[in-house]
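haha ok so turns out i had the wrong file open the whole time. this is the CORRECT one, sorry everyone. sequence first:
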Amino acid sequence: MSSSDGAYLGIDINKSQTVLSIYKSNMEEPVTVSTILGEENYSIPTELAKRVGVGQWFFGDDAIKKSRLKEAELVEDLFQKALLNEEVFVDGTGYEARELMVIYFNKLFSIPGPMAALGDIEKLIICVEQVNLEVMELMNYIISSLSIPADRLMLIDRNECFYHYALSQKPELFLYNVALFDYSGSNMVSCVLNRNQTTRPQLITLDVVNHGDLGDNRDEAFDRIIADTFGSNLFSSVYLVGNGFDGEWMKSSLTRLCKGRKVFLGKNLYSKGACYAGYTKDGKRDWPFIYIGDNDLKLNLSIKILENNVMKFFTLIDAGESWYDVKGECEVILDGEPEIEFYIQRPESREAHTEVLELSDMPPRENRTTRLRIEASPVSDVAVAIVITDLGFGEISPSSGKCWEHTISLK
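then structure:
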């Protein structure tokens, strides 16, 4: 199977459960994998257990079941310990927690049904509550152990998954605002998606509020939260995710939710949104939106170059990309003074400000006989480290080995 026919695999994972969905270009929408064929059993416990005295591992519901029967020993807090790169002891033997996470992922990829016919992975999109360096290091270790190329991995948080999911639905479902209520933990969290339809592409913002514990009367408390969240604004659709919505406790709150808008309840929104995110970011479809999330760069960084006698901008760094895994690089011929002028622009603004990096102590040479490598590496969502290296110009001008470093940030 060629890479163009590969699958986009979205995995929503946290310390308690994992949900995974698959998307291919010939599918109308992503398909979520169930551990039981024919049933919508999407939530897979993020658990691993080792059979006592034998090198056999169980995962998910089987791990919990076998540990309760005293047939296997459960690994406590597997995901958290793997993030911290801790050693754990199971059945009297020490293991690196991240090695056990590799076993867990192998088990995930071995689920019968859609996973058996998966074929090549075009992109593995991991959705977590918050993207950070620990998550990045753990997931890079896992895919390396599974022989998945590093460029096939994408990390994303739940807010961005919601953004991609909501705007991948029928247009009438996001004609006005869209709301998400997440009751995965003990607190109720709301997320409202707003579209600025005057910009091209349309700039998307998310208003996220943690409303805390609902208390004893959940229905009444949730009803107040809905009223506060909606106010007098129009909403086309509402999504409810999380185990907290299980049961039939919503009465008055559900009545308020359903007035004049579509309401959807499910547990696989994030994993499906992750699939859509990977597909969209690979340029597989038109996407007239831009969303700048917590992990995304808040600036565009460019330089001016002369190509075929035409002056143009060359973009080193694009706003909207995750600052954890994006880098920019180019090689240029210096023309004129020993300096490079950088253009810094916010994505929502048409104006740019400039910063000039002077290449002090540059060896004297004839004009256009100095080749430079420019490397741009983000160090946060609002700052980019620049390294410029003198490459010389072949035998005419040997490299001096000099490097100039500078950090550019939004003002």
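The two ends are 48 Å apart (CA to CA).
again sry for the mixup
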